[in-house]
Description:
2,3-Dihydroxybiphenyl 1,2-Dioxygenase, domain 1, 2 domains, 20% helix, 8 strands, 3 helices, single chain
Amino acid sequence: MSVRKIEHVGIRVSVLEDSIEFYIRVIGLKLLHTVGEVGADVRLAFLTFPSQNSVEVELVYKKAPEELAHEGRVNHIAFTVDHIEQEYERIANLGLSGLDKEIRTLEGGSRYFFFNGPDGERIEFFEPAQLEEL
Length: 134
């Protein structure tokens, strides 16, 4: 099989500029470029992490909102984090909607929590379990 990695994750948004600002300010992504002029029927923004650009988040604005029912947004997008307690506190202090009441732990020790993006998309911050070296 020749599949090697996730290229990008596309997220439908209602106001492109607001979502760009959110993903820069809250997630820490950087804007690579946009496609389409203000007022166009379709506009795109591509963002990635400053230190790693192998996976991108693509924000998709379409003027015709009725298409959303056919295309969907996404279920959620997960970001790996360090120091999950500090990240939970930071997100809580931002007053974002949909924040889980607590950090959850999976069997095996990985921990995570969810909150909402500007269009209700679910965002997960995930801290993998620290595996002991053999």
